[in-house]
Specification:
There is one protein chain. It contains 12 helices and 12 strands. Helix 7 (204-211) links the parallel strand 5 (190-195) and strand 6. 30% of the residues lie in helices and 15% in strands. Strands 7-8-9-6-5-4-3-2-1-10-11-12 form a 12-stranded mixed β-sheet. The longest helix has 14 residues, at 171-184. The protein is of the alpha/beta class. It starts with 6 loop residues before the first helix and ends with a helix. The structure holds S-adenosylmethionine. S-adenosylmethionine is lined by residues 51, 57-58, 100-101, 103, 128-130, 152, 192, 194, 221, 223-224, 226, 230, 358-359, 363.
């Protein structure tokens, strides 16, 4: 018999007042809503905290050097554990899973995990990658059951791109990966460009010109204050409105309705039929009120916001209990008390708050 979760009490509960064993029983109906009425629909899973790039705004070399203590393999969730959690999350409403990291294609035999997730059925499976290994892997990923893919690409100019990834990786190989993904049927391929003032803003127009008419969807992301290692300053952010102005002057754009409520990217269409672009304005136009995303860190901690400070240890529960019910109950209790809205309250004062790094929590 399902018990009613005391929502009011949970909302005021402190993080450390939510021991897993005390989570009340919740029958999974797929209709969980948090304290602000937001459903649980998306799960991002970081499958590795390692990356072969050292993008200056994400994993700067001076922090992530040769001696950086990445997680040992024993601390990562196994594929079986990830698939088990995916089933529990699906029962509580998750419809879409994005594999990320770190660089997800660095995780050995990732296709096997994709097969296991595809076998669950009814999940939209996607992945975010830097594209470095995509030319070799696109077909296997598609065959394993991946539905779509997002490739990060911050510049078309080879010198700028090599400087931003900081490992001298050539842009041509990422472009080959994008072609391979489209040829494998992982389409429409989305391409994410993080724009940082004075670093790659002069690449906005060349990127737009290159991808118009390609069938791929180029999306511009406002540079965010994730983690503590990138020295973020508000002045470095190019607001999406400026991106739309820069492109629209040259290639006229009109706004397009969102595909669904809660879509993160605001859509714009070229009037000449060259396709569409998206802008993701997490700094200038926070979308917390529609946020339906949960995140699972590489070592199995659940975070309810990219800017959250507390992760809830699902791995311990997985390894302690052969029964899925306590995991579902704990997940439900966490979601029901969720109140995060960091981007809505971001200010000079919040930038210094403790946060976790994106490579660990998953981008
Ligand atoms: N390695 C994969 C990749 O490069 O796409 C997946 C992980 S990466 C952390 C995911 C996305 O987060 C990338 O598109 C990256 O550009 C973006 N990202 C990282 N740091 C960011 C920041 N400070 N602001 C905005 N986006 C950021």
């Amino acid at each position: 018999m399902a018990k009613v979760v005391p929502l009011a009490d949970m909302r005021v509960a402190r993080d450390d007042a939510l021991p897993a064993f005390a989570a009340p029983e919740v029958t999974p109906t797929g209709l969980l809503a948090d304290g602000r009425g937001r459903a649980l629909r998306d799960l991002r899973i970081s499958v590795t905290d390692r990356c072969n790039f050292r993008c200056v705004y994400c994993m700067p070399k001076d922090v992530y050097g040769h001696d950086y203590p990445f997680l040992p393999h024993s601390q990562l969730l196994t594929f079986e554990e990830i698939a088990r959690l995916a089933r529990v999350f699906k029962a509580h409403g998750v419809e879409k899973i994005r594999l990320t990291g770190g660089e997800p294609l660095l995780r050995k035999n990732l296709e096997r995990l994709i097969e296991m997730l595809a076998d669950i059925g009814g999940l939209d499976l996607t992945l975010t990658t830097n594209g470095s290994a995509l030319a070799a892997k696109a077909r296997e990923l598609k065959a394993a059951g991946l539905n779509r893919i997002t490739v990060s690409l911050d510049a078309l100019d080879d010198d700028v791109f090599r400087a931003m990834n900081d490992v001298d990786f050539p842009v041509a190989r990422v472009l080959e990966g994008i072609d391979a993904a489209a040829a494998a049927g992982l389409s429409p391929v989305k391409i994410n460009m993080v724009v940082k003032r004075g670093v790659n803003d002069h690449q906005i127009l060349p990127m737009a010109r290159h991808f118009t008419g390609s069938g791929h969807i180029l999306r511009f992301i406002e540079y965010m204050d994730v983690g503590h290692t990138n020295g973020w300053r508000l002045d470095d952010v190019i607001p999406s409105a400026e991106v739309v102005r820069i492109i629209g002057r040259d290639m006229p754009l009109v706004p397009v309705d969102a595909n669904y409520t809660g879509e993160v990217a605001e859509r714009w269409r070229y009037t000449d039929g060259g396709g569409e672009i998206g802008v993701i304005s997490s700094v200038t136009q926070a979308f917390c009120s529609d946020c339906t995303r949960a995140r699972l860190s590489t070592d199995g901690k659940l975070y309810t916001c990219l800017f959250a400070t507390t992760g809830y240890d699902l791995r311990a529960l997985l390894r302690e209990s052969a029964d899925d019910a306590p995991i579902g109950n704990y997940l439900a209790a966490i979601w029901l008390q969720r109140a995060d809205r960091y981007s809505e309250i971001r200010s000079a004062n919040t930038v210094a708050l403790p946060k976790v790094e994106m490579s660990y929590i998953g981008g």
